[in-house]
Amino acid sequence: SVSLEQTLGFRIKVTNVLDVVTEGRLYSFNSSNNTLTIQTTKKNQSPQNFKVIKCTFIKHLEVIGDKPSFNSFKKQQIKPSYVNVERVEKLLKESVIASKKKELLRGKGVSAEGQFIFDQIFKTIGDTKWVAKDIIILDDVKVQPPYKVEDIKVLHEGSNQSITLIQRIVERSWEQLEQDDGRKGG
Amino acid sequence: MTTTSTTSVDGRTSSTLKATLSASGPNSNGPTPAVLPQKPKLTGWAQAAAKALPRQQQQQQQARKDDSVAVQPANTKTKTIASTAPPANIKGSSTANGSSTNKKFKRANKQPYNREEVRSYMHKLFQSYTAGEKSHSMKTYKQVLSETASGRVSTATDWGTVSSSKNKNKKYGCLSDIAKVLRNQ
Amino acid sequence: MKGNFRKRDSSTNSRKGGNSDSNYTNGGVPNQNNSSMFYENPEITRNFDDRQDYLLANSIGSDVTVTVTSGVKYTGLLVSCNLESTNGIDVVLRFPRVADSGVSDSVDDLAKTLGETLLIHGEDVAELELKNIDLSLDEKWENSKAQETTPARTNIEKERVNGESNEVTKFRTDVDISGSGREIKERKLEKWTPEEGAEHFDINKGKALEDDSASWDQFAVNEKKFGVKSTFDEHLYTTKINKDDPNYSKRLQEAERIAKEIESQGTSGNIHIAEDRGIIIDDSGLDEEDLYSGVDRRGDELLAALKSNSKPNSNKGNRYVPPTLRQQPHHMDPAIISSSNSNKNENAVSTDTSTPAAAGAPEGKPPQKTSKNKKSLSSKEAQIEELKKFSEKFKVPYDIPKDMLEVLKRSSSTLKSNSSLPPKPISKTPSAKTVSPTTQISAGKSESRRSGSNISQGQSSTGHTTRSSTSLRRRNHGSFFGAKNPHTNDAKRVLFGKSFNMFIKSKEAHDEKKKGDDASENMEPFFIEKPYFTAPTWLNTIEESYKTFFPDEDTAIQEAQTRFQQRQLNSMGNAVPGMNPAMGMNMGGMMGFPMGGPSASPNPMMNGFAAGSMGMYMPFQPQPMFYHPSMPQMMPVMGSNGAEEGGGNISPHVPAGFMAAGPGAPMGAFGYPGGIPFQGMMGSGPSGMPANGSAMHSHGHSRNYHQTSHHGHHNSSTSGHK
Amino acid sequence: MAIKSLESFLFERGLVGSYAIEALNNCTLDIDVNHYVSRLLTNKREQYLDAIGGFPTSLKMYLESDLKIFKDFNITPIFVFNGGLTYNQLEASGHFTAASASASISSTTTSSSGTNATTRSNTESVLLQRSRGWTQWNNLISSNQNSYIDQPIQPQEPFRHNTTIDSKAYQNDLIAYFIEHGYMYQVAPYSSWFQLAYLLNSAYIDAIYGPTDCLMLDCVDRFILGMEFPNKEFRFIDRSRVMKDLGCTHEEFIDIAMAVGNDLQPTTLPPLQIYPVPQLFDIALEMVLNTGTNFYAYQLSTTLQNDSKENIQNYQRGISALRYMPVLKDTGKVELFVQEIVVSEEDSEKNNKDGKKSNLSSPSSASSSASPATTVTKNASEKLTYEKSSTKEVRKPRDIPNDVHDFIGQMLPHEYYFYRSIGLVTGKLFDAIVTGVYPEEPPLGGGSSTSYKKLVSKSVEIFKNKEINLLTQPINRYYQIKQIKQVKWYAANEPTTLTNRMSPSMFETINHLIVKTETSDEKEFSISEFITTINGSSNMAKDFISEKVIFPNSVPIESKLNSPFNLLSTNFLRLLVLLEFFTFDFKEKLLEPTRWGEVFLKLNELNIDSKYHESVIIFLVFLKCDVLKLDEEVQPPAPSALSQATLRSYPEESLYVLLITRVLTLFQVDQKPSNYHGPIDKKTLIFRDHLSFIKENLNELFEAVLISSLTSGEFNRLSLDNFGWARKIVRYLPFKLDSPNTIMAMMWEFFLQKYLHNGNAKNDALSLVATEFNTYKSTPNLDEQFVESHRFLLEISKVMQELNAAKLIDENVFKLFTKAVEFTTTALSS
Fold this sequence. Notes:
The complex is a heterotetramer of chains A (186), B (185), C (722) and D (830). Chain A has 186 residues and is of the alpha+beta class. Helices cover 32% and strands 27% of the residues of chain A. Chain A is built from 3 helices and 10 strands; from the N terminus they run E-E-E-E-E-E-H-H-E-E-E-E-H. Chain A is elongated and about 80 Å long. Chain B has one domain (42-182). Helix content of chain B is 50%, strand content 3%. Chain C has 26 helices and 10 strands. Chain C has a 5-stranded antiparallel sheet with strand order 5-4-3-2-6. A 3-stranded antiparallel sheet of chain C has the order 8-9-10, covered by helices on one side. The radius of gyration of chain C is 41 Å and the shape is flat. Chains in contact: A-B, A-C, B-C, B-D, C-D. Chains A and C meet through strand 1, strand 3, strand 5 and helix 1 of A and strand 1, helix 2, strand 4, helix 3 and strand 6 of C.
């Protein structure tokens, strides 16, 4: 039998039970949690992509190409090195804050179309937010599900300017959605 | 008494040393016009010093060098003057001293992976989430599943891959193709 | 070496120690190997776990996608994961959303139920996709921190140095410098050695050139360029000096003198020194794979450079001479005879510093006495000289970035002249006595040909002989050697003792030349050629690789095809003398046999090998087939069919040679009268599919000839009755 | 290696002619030793050789009888050995990985290793069979554990099967034999059969006896394939007749040869690798004739397959090696043997280009080779004659590409090839310099013991670095920079880089040491004479340290080393300095023996028989390396050949037996040639591996020292012709011959065991040895051999005493050994 270490660096093609195929280099095989980690980007690329796959989820694993010449821990070009825990903590905090901001722009439990309409409006008008499942623009205009042109409501009187703009945006967005749909169908 | 001389230390005149230091900018790694002409000189000097030594002495030193295990590796190439950091700094505290040490190390060797520290941090982090589930409006996937329609239909987590395929009961079953290649090399 | 071994030992020990210290358990999974494929020890497990932990720790705070076992994909911010879980990885996502609803539900349905934070247990995590993970964050972070703190430190250092300026004459140890006030363990300096692998090369990536020049590393350069660690350079960084040595000051003076000498050299015209002083070699020729594996493609260039350098060249000045062979006259003559223009008593004096003029002077001139006037150099100077010479001669053509050209104006011109190799002589043999190999070979050939005609063949073979199972043992009468019988010749033996001996042979050649020379007094003494004259490459006549002598795929296939057709043509003509060769081709195309799949008949050739694993070549046994008189009558019809199909001698659709099915051997048998059973062969392509050939069926009295063109463009059939 | 399966094919087709041996009367016959040895040692012979080590004695027997017949017919044989290997051959033999892949394959079972008999290389098969032999043996031992008391078990599974014996291993022994009996020999720079072809073409010889590979050369019209001495016949092959019968052109034949596997391209390429070996050629020929297959095109068309790149590469290298093979020419230079090609004059330029682009060997196939048909149709023949009349044919040598070193190997100086050609060097070091790899392959005993591995790693410092420096210093400076690594079979991925460069160089440190005595040219070198010379000096430093170096050309011949004795003595002294048997300091004018050297210098005083001197040095160096004490068990322990009963009842005596057998691995029993089949002992074999390793390394270090001396010009190289070099120098080189086999050690082992169990009855014990070892045939004078080997033990015992006095060995070991020898004395004199 061969040392497990030697599996490192192999270019492999993994088909999971859902027949989704992942290709890349074997980065790690962990028997302690029964997973396989694949590096899916090219060696010299940065940043890198990885995929951790649970072994029980693998239907089939196939080697592509030859045995790598560098199949040992020592020769990997990614080797664990010092991790500054503070830095990790800091990064985590920053990204949580950033994500929170983004999160506000996502409707909870809304349809994909609704989100698309929101995004399109947000592109043009920065002051757009979700209130429950309604889109509120400039605290003036409301778009309710299912977010068609008919669903645009004015909250306060006398803001016709913005309403026409929003109508046009919503209209165009739906056209685009239908086009995309048609393309999908074909 | 044995004196250790390196390329980074020029002991002939203090003025030279000063020049070197003042010349090196805020980032001592950056080259400045004043540094470059200095460099061959040092190289040449050390080269000559090496030659001036009798051969046997060199060999002895070589031997001694091999026997000794250095407390810390030092990168003699850097222009910064080595300040010896207490071992605690290896753990990566953010004091000025510590970071300068790290910096010095950056070129020579990446610092070794701090396994225990990473593990304990990750452990704490995970604890903080799992212990305070409610505070983050935390839901587990199981809960999510039970709330959806499909959840009521029991979902098998085991896809039967292990029991059905030829890799049954084999710990490294999915790696069989790799094993084949390795054996045929 | 010893040190290395010891180091390795200690490192393994410490690793073992580290292992026992760590309280990390394997999560209850027994670490034993159930299958015979792989084995894994705690060491390996730990290494793998470290790899994954390292990756996961670096993925905290990035967006990830989790595929759960039902196929639904969730994306979100990875805020935590459990490294201790034993069945998959427990993952905590912040702001989860459904990216792909998989098979079953609609997104809306699933999304409704999600909260702000989602914990997915390892057993449900089928896949965890980590995207855009930057593993160099720590390094970058350290750098940015360091930059903030450096100025302050530098000032402190400056002050301290000023305070200690009275110690001018002393060398300062590390302890002195770091301040005697602090208590610090003394430590020894260690040479920085690159790790195995590519790290130390990768570090320079993505940085500006200026950064590199400061941190230029001699070891890295040498190792990168030649795969050699220079022993000399190691002293540069590791020398310790013993101040108490009585000869210390004397040596110091000596050292400074030498140092000055070296410094005064400058970089002009010497790419080596230029490189060593921080001028960068362009790395673009090396891709990461090369750096990674440590294989330097420039090895070839190096070889080429050496090749050109080792070629004796009278224009060259000081040649590099191995230290072993110093104090000897060296000669630039490519001939095996080394010649010198100095007399014997002068040889002792002449050193390898003799001027190019002296070395390259033509034979007729009186010897120049330059070398006598020169003082012999001290050994140290000689050594430096040696090194200088070595580095001067040792040039490797590199690509130089444009902005470097200014700096290297002079050296680049030297490079140019170096990279073009001098034309090479086809034969090095200087001797007039030896016959050129060409004539020898042809002479040998014609001789053996003549003798060949006298041999009575043991067996006359016409066309194809069928294979006989018993070997024919028939003795030949007459002579094995033909007309010219060998006779023992003692001279031959003597000749054998003297030939194949480079010393004797080159001496003979030398003496021969001497005889021919009238002014024999001026003749140089004979010396045996020094072994370092031989380059590591063989003499070539053209500047091309052997690989260029091979055809590409199409040409190779076409060649084989032509050959095959030619053979068929010949065998047809041979077998049916009255027939038109054009018919032969069509017949060749027609004489196929119906063939089922590989399972058609038990196959004698299979011998238990898996069928179809490669292109199987399948012989098979057809039913005995008989020759009918009616066949020739059918010929014209078939011929016209062939013509309709555009089949002249050569079909326009020529399949790959080895894919074609053709009769070859059966055609030979076709010429015999009466019914002769014969064996047919059928080829199959690499795919294991039977080749597309023509088929022939027979039903009682009626015959159908069914011909298919190779590509199935056109089918036609005719039937005839007896 | 020959073209796979071709020979049997030719016999079946009746294409092998035969002649009576008289036909060769008075001729000079060149013999390819590789081919010849493979004929003599067929599969059934010497099946247990790998379990006991040593030289195959039966080879000598066959050789002698053949030589006698040559003499009867006044045939002058010239034996040509194979030299270096080309890249394809190196790869196939596992050179670059020190056969580690093969070694690991041999440890797994055949079925799972994924190779079949067709694709497996010879090295793989050898190791596979060896491990099979030992596995079977272990099973046999354990199953007989209870019944075995003092009757040794005979092995059943052969240790060699269906593999060709590597004649390289016995090259030195054969050369020694040829020199002794006055036969001519030569070692080719690369392929031996090319050297034969060159010699034939330049009319130095009349006929060649070589492998079927010779058919690939169109300059060889006929060659002898085999000799059948019982019938006084020989078998030969006539090229034109074969080609006519096969019905393919010369180019197609070469294509087939490359695909089935031959000496220059040993692997069988797809699609042929799935067929059994005996049918390969037959099938390949059918494919060419019936479907117009071109195997090169086939390789190109299957680029998707895993190995296709390597296959294309191997094919190209094979063809190229055939076109440009270095041979040693009569000028003493090694040059490429380039065959000519025929081109028509007017198309010379064009055809040359076309020819270049062809993988087939000649562009004008119609004229250069037999056409497949005997008669040609009228039209076709007219066409041909028309073509012929319009053009003239020109023969010109092929163009030589600029990267011959990529498929042959880098070039060494002519002088180095010369030393190889006369057998002065084995060439393993040359190969290391050329390839950048010095392989440490698994020894006969497997080499799993830690002490052996330790020895391998220690050899880098003690031997290898010095050798590499000595050999790379005098030659092109590329080699001084080139990385040369020691690759070990057990850790092929962790090579040790050898140091080429030292300052001062190794040669500079020793070249002031000169032994120059006033002796005649004829004085023979021996270690004993050397000791006498050294001991004859009252002041070593004065007599053997020369103020001036003697290598420069300016030094007159008289002041150089002028006799073979002085040459060898000088270099032997240098060897001993490098081995630290002497300390030497030129500046201090110091030269004196170390404690080891003192023991060595006493060998004459102690009356040690001069024929054992070499063995004693090996023994001393082994002890000095200090990897295994003489009484120490190897780790992991190997099963003892003694029975459990013996080990349990006689623990003390068992230890004696261990010491005795170990020392006796240095003693070669005087055997009559025979195929050995008798008891085997792995434990002893493993110890023999250690000593054999030391010997090989001593040989290589001495070679390196000698070469550095010769190339620098310290010796008058013009004073000898080839026979002189052989008779006066090569013949007396120490450490050249293969180490003794383990037979004598085992004879003593089983003799003493029987003696112990049988109430100390010597005669029963001796007769047991006689029957078990079949000595009535192989060792008629068994008693004499026991007495002789006992004398050897006593002599070693004297050396041990000196070593003990000098505190160079453990006192316990010394006492134990003394007791052990006493034990043998009582047993033998009882």
